[in-house]
Write a structure and sequence with these properties.
Distance between the termini: 95 Å
Largest sheet: none
Shape: rod-shaped
Order of helices and strands: HHHH
Number of strands: 0
Structural class: mainly alpha
Helix content: over 70%
């Protein structure tokens, strides 16, 4: 009886050792995979989400309106004037005038 009990215990211990080795292998693979993901994740730029709220939405809308006006102005200059120096000068002036135009359109009071 004692020998049978010892043999069963030995079989259980061997099976437990096999299961423990399998778990250790799986844990090691997970750790390597996690480390690989983290190493690759540091190479990518972070995800930037839009800020929520009414003020942020108003600011996005105002910037969009300003950009649309300047784009429309540059397209108009591009269509009306065929010479490149005029087009380039209009583009440079419009880029320099962005803050002034935005302030004039959306003055904070």
């Amino acid at each position: 009886m004692s020998k049978e009990r010892a043999q069963r215990r030995e079989v259980r211990e061997r099976e437990a050792a096999v299961v423990a080795a399998a778990r250790a292998g799986a844990a090691e693979r997970r750790d390597r995979q996690r480390a690989r993901r983290q190493a690759l994740g540091r190479l990518r730029p972070g995800h930037r989400s839009r800020p929520p709220g009414l003020l942020a939405a108003r600011r996005r809308r105002q910037r969009g309106i300003t950009a649309a006006l300047l784009l429309g102005l540059n397209v108009l200059v591009w269509v009306l004037f065929p010479d490149w120096p005029t087009r380039a000068m209009a583009l440079i002036i419009s880029l320099l005038a962005v803050p002034v135009l935005h302030t004039m359109l959306f003055r904070r009071t």
